[in-house]
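Lecture 7, part B: from sequences to assemblies.

Below are the input chains for today's worked example.
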Amino acid sequence: MKTCEALVIGGSAGSLDVLLKVLPDLRPDLSFPIIIVIHRKHGADSLLPDLLKGRTTLNVKEVEEKEHILAGTIYVAPSDYHLLIEQDRTFSLDSSEKINYSRPSIDVTFQTAAEIYQDKLVCMLLSGSNADGVNGLKAVKAYGGRALIQNPADAQVPYMPAQAAQNVVIDASLNIEDTAEFINLLS
Amino acid sequence: MEVTVITEEQIDALLADLLERYGYDFTGYSKASLKRRIQRLYSLDKALSFAEFRFKIANEPLYFKRFVEQITVNVTEMFRDPTFFKTLRNEVLPKLGTYPLIRIWIAGCSTGEEAYSMCILLQELGLLQKSLVYATDLNPAVLEKAAQGFFGLSQMKQYSENYIQSGGSKEFSSYYTAKYSLAKFNDDLRSKIIFSTHNLVSDRSFNEFQLILCRNVLIYFDRDLQNKVIGLFDDSLEELGYLALGSKETMEFSGVSKRYRRLPSDKIWRKMN
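Predicted structure of the full complex, as structure tokens:
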């Protein structure tokens, strides 16, 4: 079994609900960080981390630029910035053009994480209505990492995970109720 | 562009060329973002090989110009983060109003949207006549555009909303004239802006200011370079002057920060004596 150095979760419409259901069942001693990139409206800052904080004993925080990435912490990408991972395991932010009409773009985080963590990366794409994240998952696979999706049949908006399933060799397609256990076993 | 074909070593070689041939130092930039921008241009221009790409940049000044334009991020808007501009309007600029001459530096001004926003605020507060706004960028192409004062008409709805949220109460359209698909901003706003090239990495302090804005520029620099640039701002700021950074940026890690006090609501620090 490959080790997991980081888990990146991307999602759009309908994905918040998944996180709220999965977070309470995560083990409190996860041996890797979870990095969450969710499309949301600019200006709704700090609301999302606060919402997630109430569902887990793990440390939840919005990313600060140049911050060191620590195991056992859940990081949330700020709205209106792309989130990138640097070679020295720190975060960078980037306010360049939107990608797939999105900033943060899931593709950007998946792609830069793939280059850094390579085969020790796990990325998961949740419910959503556009195809952001699909190219990112391709990069994850090309670097030997693992690609997960929320089972499209179980997703509020199946388009995003379904696009991934069509275009990428997926390692696992998970129902909400099985997701926390799957993540715990990566530790 | 799923898999990066450009390696760290190739990027380092390219950056060494840029420094040697043109004196542009990108070595302190955040690597992940820089690499993504270079990769993007490489794919966009369908370079045949990295060697060719690198040769062209090093030997064709026109292509080098394009390179700089394309790898620097020039995404900006008027009254971006309206609450920040509200604080400028209500707290910062009124304090500067007591000075006989107000000098403001907008570092990394890109296509000028913030400079014009600033001048609108100054005009509404009755301070424009005694103000000078230095707007600088390392990229001459964006400065040319900024100096013309034309922005896309399609953006005006968004900018107008930002303006109102920032506490503006006039008709935003009174600040420009529509010409085809463009909005031409009034010349009196432009008259107090000095556009000039300045490279934060290699150029020195060139004046003393009471307010320096540098928003969403430091995110592209690594910590060492950020620290150096904050030192440059410190050298360029009068006592009791203000430094404003982007919503996700900070100066707290820097050694000079203990002489500064942050305004509680925004990323604005005041230099104390």
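Note for the exam: The helical segments of chain A are 15-22, 47-53, 106-117, 134-142, 159-167, 176-186. Keep this in mind when comparing with the next example.
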